[in-house]
Write the C-alpha cells for this entry.
Amino acid sequence: MIELDDTDRAILRALQADATLKSATLARRLGLSQPATWRRMKRLETAGVILGRRLELDAEKLGFGVTVFLGVKLATKGRVSLEDFERAVTAIPEVQTVQHVLGLYDYRLRVVARDLPDFERVLRRRIMTLPGVGNVEANVMLSEERRPGPLG
Amino acid sequence: MLTDTDRRLLRRLQANPDMPVADLAEAVGLAPATCYKRLDRLQASGVIRATRAVIDRAALGYTVEVSLRITLDKTQPRAFDEFLAAAREIAEVQEIQTFLGRVDTRLSVLARDMAHYQQVYRERILALPHIADIEALMHVATIKDAETLPL
C-alpha cells in the first residue's frame, strides 16, 4: 500500500474533479514547482492509485432520462454458472455497473434507459432472460451525489 | 441539438478519454479544428460534464465496500433533507442516491477493513437521523464498472 501525504491527497482531489489539469496549473494552485508536481502525478499513476480517466456525460441531455438500480437474485444457485450470468449481463449496453454482492441479492446492477417504456423493454427482453436470473428488485433513481470519498 | 457526428465523437471519447484530439478527429472524419470546436461546444452546453481521474481505493487501503439501502421514517417531513445533509458529512460515504421504490436512499460506504467498517457503521451511520431500516450489501467483486452510456 502506498503512503500518501497531504499534497498527494490534494493532487488526487483536484484530478478527481478535473483530470485534464496540467501539472503547471496544479503546481501553481498547490504552491509547488511544476517538476515536483509532475513527479508526484507520475508516482500516483505508476503506483496504480490513478487507474485512468473517465468521461462524465450528462445522461439526461443525451436522452437517457431514467436510471434504475436493480438487485438480482439468482434462481438456481449452484446449477447455473456465475460466469455465464456475468458474461451475459456485462454484454448488455444499458447495464453500466455490475457488482457481485453478499446479502439480500447476488448482484447489483445500474441500468440506464431513455424512459420508463424503454426501461421495461430492457428489463423484459434483456434482464429477465439472463441465464439463472431469479428475483429482481428495481429502484428508480431520483437523485445522485458523488462524494470525494476517503483518500486515506 | 446533437448531431450524429457529436454522438460518434462522444462514443469514441467515452471509450478512450485519453485519445488525443488529432486521433479523435481522424477517427470521426473531422478536421482537427472542427473537432476542437465541437468538443468545446459539448463542454459549454454541459453534455460533457467533466473528465475525472478514477482512483483505486484498494490501492489506498480501502478494501471494504458496502452498499447500505436505507428506508427513512417518512412521517418526518424533513426526513430526506436532514438525512442527506448528515450523510454528506461522513468522509467514508462515496455515493448517495435517492430512489422511488422499495428503498428510499442508498449510501456507498468505504472502509479499510471490517473493524473500521464496524466503527463507521456504529458511530456514524447509525447516528444518521430518521432511519427506519437498513439493509447491507457487501461488495465481493466489481464485474463491470465502465458507466458508459449506450450512445
Notes: The first strand of chain A starts at residue 50 and ends at 57. The longest helix of chain A spans residues 34-46. Chain A has a mean pLDDT of 94. The CA atoms of residues 64 and 114 of chain A lie 4 Å apart.
